[in-house]
Structure formats: structure tokens, C-alpha cells
Amino acid sequence: MAMVKGIDVRGMQHCETTALGVLLRHAGLDLSEPMLFGLGSGLSFIYWDSKAMGFPFLGGRVKPFELTRNLAAALGLELLIGETTSPRKAWQNVAAPIDAGRPVGLQLDSYHLDYFSTKVHFGGHVVAMYGYDEQDAYLVDTAPQGGAVSTSLAGLARARAERGPMTTKHRSFTITAPSSATPSQDRIILAIKTCADAFLNPPIANLGHRGIEKTAKHVPKWLHRSDDPREDLPRAAALMERAGTGGALFRNLYRDFLAECAQLIDSSHLRTGHTLYTEAAALWTQVAALIATAGESGDTKNLVQAGSLLHELSRIERDAMQELSLLQC
């Protein structure tokens, strides 16, 4: 058996920030989950639909692992990434740091994890691994998934080798934090402005505030878009409120990040951004509830109301990001 000593196995709400928290705490840097999410410029929005999809997808954050790269850049962390097509080399990339007393982050497909409560393929799932024996791997996942958990080595190997959307070639990573990694005001402001710029200037209409506006136009038609509205609409709502988002499609996390920043930085732009995201988070929860109710009742008026709220959300989040973009380092 190999087990990293001194691991804080605290599970958070979101998988990637949970794994980052484990690795950074072991490296001597303890940041809140909202701070990890915000410093990683994690907030975003995407509306995605195609003929090949059974139902549209709504996403509220940047693509998997981009948050980790952003956070490493923001804090000057040393991020070492291993990728390989060889299962043998992939295991070496994990076992070597653990044998040396360091936890490892893994991106994998959650479908194959023994403990996972919902058996769906998701190749963008991230966990921290801190030990193994002859049969099992010892991981830290989100609090809803159990925090400190274990899965069979065979299941872990399948999860890492899976191919499909968002999967990687057995990706693993370690983090080293310099002594000066504590976030400064300049680093915080740069992370906020980076996030705001991407949100305000999306390259396509499916992203950012334009994506929310596009969603507002399509949501009222969702009863006709689905072959099984009683299944698809409540599932979409659950993904917005649960599924590692922290509630309100990650808006709760960003609201709390801005609140934490407002305690550190005296700025009217920051306070206004926080106020607007407090409003936005509450409205996203209302949208999710309306979508779920529409699926259960078959009543279109709930989706029409959800569309109206989404139109308002596009404006609120655009105004919030415009305020935040005015922050000065």
C-alpha cells in the first residue's frame, strides 16, 4: 500500500475545484472553493444543441481543465501534466508521485468509478488521488459523491482509458506552489477581468451573454424538442442546480467569490458586480425550477416564463461583467 500522508480529504461542490483544493492544501495553500473557481476564471456559459444530441446542453463554466490552467497561471504554480496512450505509462505517471508523497489530479470518465451515484459518461470529471493498494485507488471527489472514496484499480483504469467527448489520454497532473502563491489584489483583478472579457466578447453566439440570450429564445420550445420531456427537462434542471455546479449553474460560486474579493478590494465596480450576480444566481435557480415543472406538467407557460427570465439574465450578467471589466490593477 502507498498512501500520501497529511491529506485533507475535504470534498467541495465542484469536481475540479475539489481536486485543486486537495493538491493545493497539501502544497501549503488553503483557498476557499469560490476563490479557486474565481481565480481560475471559471465562470462561462454555453448553449449547445445539434441533431446528434438527444437534448440541448447548458453549461455554466469554462471547458474541463481550463480552470486548472488558468489558476496555475494566476498564482504562478508549477503545473506538471502527464498524458499518454500507454496504460502502463499512465499508471507510472500516477504511482510515482504518490510513492514520493504527493497527491495527483486525474481527469477521467466518471461512468467507470465504482462509487459514482449517477452512471452517465462524463469525460471531464476530475478527482484527486492520494493512495492505492493491490486492489483499490483512494480518491477525493466532491462532497455529494462522498469526499474520501475508493474505486477498484480496474475501474480506475477503464475511467482513464475511456474515449469520447471531453476525454483525454490518461491525463494526470501535479501542482507545486511557490511560497508567494497567496493571491494578490492584482492577480484577483486580472482573473476577474479575464473572465469578464471572455464572457462579453464570445467568438460565437452560443457562448457568454449571447449564449444566454440564445437560450432564452429556444427554451420555450423545449417540450417539442424532447422525445421524453418528463425525463429530459427535469434532468436538465437537475444538472443546473446539482451535478457539481454549486447551484444556479455555478453562479452561486461566482457570487461568493466576488463577495470574498469585496472584503479584500475596495471597489464600487466589484460591489456592483457582486450585487448583480447575487440577483443572477437567484434567477438561475428559478429558471431551473420552471424547467423541471414544465417537464413534469407539460405546461408550456413555465418555459415561456423561463425564457423571459433568461432574457433578463443575459442583460444582468452582461451588465455585471461590464462593471467588473472596469476594475483597475
Folded structure, characterized:
This protein is α+β, with helices and mostly antiparallel strands. It has 2 domains: 2-30 and 78-176, Cathepsin B, Chain A (Alpha-Beta Complex); 185-324, no CATH class. The protein has 12 helices and 9 strands. The strands form 2 sheets. Strands 1, 4, 5, 6, 7, 8 and 9 form a 7-stranded antiparallel sheet that branches. The longest helix has 30 residues, at 268-297. It starts with a strand and ends in a 5-residue tail after the last helix.
Q: With helices defined by DSSP (H or I, 4 residues minimum), what is the helix count?
A: 12
The number of domains: 2
Element order, helices and strands? EHHEEHEHEEEEHEHHHHHHH
Shape: globular
Radius of gyration: 20 Å
What tags apply to this protein structure?
Cathepsin B, Chain A, alpha+beta, seven-stranded antiparallel beta sheet, two-stranded antiparallel sheet, 329 residues
